[in-house]
Amino acid sequence: MRVTVNGEARELPDGTTVADAVAAVTPAASGVAAALNDEVVRRAAWAATPLADADRLEVLTAVQGG
């Protein structure tokens, strides 16, 4: 299936979840948020939220600095 992750088109296997896609984008264990088709997905739901063809996923990581 073809999914847009952070503005970049990616081919992902069927059954890929938000958790799988986030892990592919960042190794960060905390400070990460995900929005699927403009709706925030709670971290507790990532593993149970499958992606579908043409979905848009934004993965955001918090950074420190000034």
From TrEMBL:
Transmembrane intervals:
none
Origin superkingdom: Bacteria
InterPro entries the record matches: Beta-grasp_dom_sf (IPR012675), Mopterin_synth/thiamin_S_b (IPR016155), Thi_S (IPR010035), ThiS/MoaD-like (IPR003749)
Q: Which SUPFAM superfamilies match?
A: MoaD/ThiS
Q: Which NCBIfam families match?
A: thiS
Designated name of the protein: Sulfur carrier protein ThiS
* Taxonomic path: Bacteria, Bacillati, Actinomycetota, Actinomycetes, Streptosporangiales
